[in-house]
Amino acid sequence: MVGPDRQDKPGNQDEDAPQDEYARRQDEKVRKVETVISIVLRTGVVVSVIVIVVGLVLSFLHHPEYLSHFSYKSLADSHYRFPDTLSGLFRALSKGEGRGVIVLGLALLILTPVMRVAVSIFAFAYQEDPIMVAVTTFVLLVLVSSFFLGKAGS
Amino acid sequence: MFIILISLVYVWHLRLILLIWICTVVRTILYDIIMNPLDFVILMFLISIVAGVLGSLIGLGGGVVVVPVLTLIFHVDIRLAIGASIVSVIATSSGAAAAYVRERMTNLRTGMFLEIATTTGAITGAFLTTILPARFLFILFGVVLAYSGVAMYAKRHQDRLLAVSTDRIANRLNLHGSYYDEAEQREISYKVTGTKPGLALMYVAGMVSALLGIGSGALKVPAMDLAMHLPMKVSTATSNFMIGVTAAASAGVYFARGQIDPVIAAPVAAGVLGGATVGSLMLGKIESKAIRMIFVVVLMVIAFEMFQRGI
Fold it and tell me: What share of chain B is helix, strand, coil (3-state, %, to 5)?
């Protein structure tokens, strides 16, 4: 059985000061890591919501009929065509279609958690925490492989 | 004074416009008159704000609200509704986690550690989709959720926080933590235990969410609360942090299958992000017990839904 935290009981009295110094520095690093991860999430969220709103405005500008007697149902059923491949997305974007811009924003939103995991690897490396680096790298690998599995499965 | 008066009239005026607009929308829904895309987008945006607040508070993501609203009120195809739900889960997760991580409400290390199990579970689930009968799974999952709901309700009088943990993995990885509780106005520190059952449950949670297309938070929160002894608010905040990664793992599949309709997903994403930001400001101030009760009620509703789909 492992006892309580190592930080809780410094082994030697005269090692107390450097121990405290070490713990304080570690704590500062943990703080920095938390801030970085928080910034990554916030940036991803803000950028994607701006792109999505721009895309929505563009769609309404290009299709004035959306504002009058025109049912939303034709845009929300399985016959409505929208970009569902990367090449389709680029085609829609090059034509300046609003829905293409929306899909780009949604893709950025989906990639935000992936970015968060990727940045965490470096953050834990900075914290000099090899086990957490391994854990996070594993999660990123599984995530990335799931994207390829998705391609194969459809 | 004059400015205040003007702004009051202005706000009042806005409220009037909103009221008239809501009346029109209710009429359109009731009498099945053609609703135009602008009305749909605005209405879905407003509903998604509510979904974001609720989802970020209890760590389930916005899907719990978004899917029934889309299918029952707007008669949207269930496949597209599930695509929008995945987007809403990612939006809730990233939107609220930015605040929760900064406030140390999220246990970052525990979350990352458990993601090992949720992501591998999600991949396993994607492979098993065609093999296992979905109806049986819905009933099984309904039973598990109902049981977790009862167990969490029974724990309502105290968060059994540990002072010492004998869990080797938790000690080795230093998964323990503390957070400042605004409602109780004190720093609450806690120890983590039960990492092995926790990992096993997270694996199942990831698998089930890939198999049944439902948010995995419903299993994550009980696992952290019951098996790992995390405080209630830390459980919901950490679940909230993790569901984004699990959902991102399956979002690629949904995108390639053409289930992410931009016209539906856009107002959902924007609304849920707004709601999650509001929710993340509220979590600290609400008492743990209240969060627990809201969670139990929502869990029971989901369990009931699962039974219905299984029978």
Answer: 75, 5, 20
Q: What would the two tokens of residue B71 be?
A: 């299918």
pLDDT in tens, B236-250: 999 988 988 888 877
Collapsing DSSP states into helix, strand and coil, what is residue A10? Answer: coil
* Gap between the Cα atoms of B194 and B175, Å rounded: 11
A54 and chain B in contact, CB less than 8 A = no
Chain segment B122-134, per-residue pLDDT in tens: 888 877 766 777 7
Which chain A residue shows the shortest CA-CA distance from B253? Answer: A150
Residues of A in contact with B99 (CB under 8 A): 38
- What's the confidence (pLDDT) of residue B268? 93
Residue by residue, what is the 3-state secondary structure of B156-192? CCCCCCECCCCCHHHHHCCCCEEEEECCCCEEEEEEC
**Residues 69-108 of chain B whose Cβ lies under 8 A from any Cβ of chain A:** 74-77, 79-80, 87, 90-91, 93-95, 97-99, 101-102, 104, 108
The letter for the amino acid at B68 is P
Q: Within 13 Å of residue B25, how many CA atoms lie on the same side as its CB?
A: 20
- How distant, in Å, are the alpha carbons of B66, B150, B183, B280, B303 from that of B310? 21, 21, 40, 34, 11
Domain residue extents for chain B: 44-310
